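User: I'm writing a tutorial on reading structure tokens. Could you give me a worked example: one chain, its sequence, then its tokens, then a sentence or two explaining what the tokens reveal?
Assistant: Sure. Here is the example chain.
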Amino acid sequence: MRTTVISHAAFGCATALLASSATYLALAGWPESMSLSRAHAQSQLGVGIGVHQTELFKTTMKDVLGRVVTIRRTERDPGNGSGPHRHPGSHTFGYVLEGTYEVKVDDGPLQKLGPGETFYEPPGALHAVSRNGSSTLAVKYLVIQISDPTKPQTVPE
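And here are its predicted structure tokens:
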């Protein structure tokens, strides 16, 4: 029981630290002294037409059940969205940087989020709506995931 409590406390602290760091980096700009990481971040992860993801950070948390932490910047073209899906093994946190992001998780309400607003998807939750809320402007947001590497990253509905 004590090990479980310590593991959950470490997980919570790591999540808070990563979210704070990601927010700082997004608002202050990526430090030039991290040129190797910056070069890695430049590799675009093409997800589909009208959406681009840039991996900013990824590591395995060996002291927290081997979870993998990934921070990505996602940009969606005007009107772009994805179909309903789930992330079976991932805690997913989002932070809107620019534009309007529309999100609906499970049976919750449709949220229209703007800069500085956040969302959370627990593992296995239905991400029913994920789209740019504007027909004229791009949306940019950070996605921070803490994932079980033994489970699929994304499963379409």
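What the tokens reveal: The first strand starts at residue 44 and ends at 48. Helices lie at 2-28, 35-41.
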